[in-house]
Write a structure and sequence with these properties.
Layout (H helix, E strand, L loop, with lengths): L41 H23 L1 H31 L4 H25 L5 H29 L1
Keywords: Membrane, Transmembrane, Transmembrane helix
Organism: Actinoplanes missouriensis (strain ATCC 14538 / DSM 43046 / CBS 188.64 / JCM 3121 / NBRC 102363 / NCIMB 12654 / NRRL B-3342 / UNCC 431)
Protein name: ATP synthase protein I
Length: 160
């Protein structure tokens, strides 16, 4: 094609496949007015867990010295980070798109329990003196976190 020759313009004719379906989008539940309730317990639980870390480290130190203090504190810290991560991921998914709750929740739990399994397998197979305290710290962290979160939710629902 050289300069000056007219260009044929072909109008766009939509194909049947390009048309939008006539079915309406499904009704999605409205998002809550204030989504902060999903994470409002985290500051209080974090303070409780920090106190538990100090208590576990002290108890571990008096029971078996520095390795047990480190093991007990590390066990509680692992649970605190793990549970906080799950809470934040699930809260984020619920505010962005509730359909993401199940896949992201399962992915988060799979990752954290895999990591926890690797940590415990390493701890059990090692000759480290704090391995028993690490396991006890994890148990204490799970029990305290679960108990305080249940109490928090009971208190929250009792207000309403």
């Amino acid at each position: 094609m050289s300069r000056g020759e007219p260009v044929d313009v072909v109008p766009y004719v939509p194909d049947v496949a390009d048309e939008e379906p006539d079915t309406p989008l499904p009704d999605l539940p409205p998002l809550p007015a204030d989504p902060r309730w999903r994470v409002e317990h985290l500051p209080f639980l974090s303070v409780v867990c920090m106190a538990l870390i100090l208590f576990a480290a002290s108890a571990g130190f008096f029971a078996g010295g520095a390795p047990d203090a480190l093991g007990a504190a590390a066990g509680v810290l692992i649970v605190t980070i793990s549970y906080s991560m799950s809470t934040l991921v699930i809260a984020w998914a619920d505010t962005v798109r509730p359909a993401l709750l199940m896949p992201l929740g399962l992915l988060t739990y799979t990752l954290k329990y895999t990591l926890l399994g690797v940590i415990l397998a390493f701890g059990v197979s090692s000759d480290w003196e704090g391995r028993t305290a690490l396991g006890l710290g994890i148990v204490a962290g799970v029990m305290v976190w679960t108990g305080v979160q249940a109490w928090w939710m009971y208190r929250r629902t009792a207000r309403k």
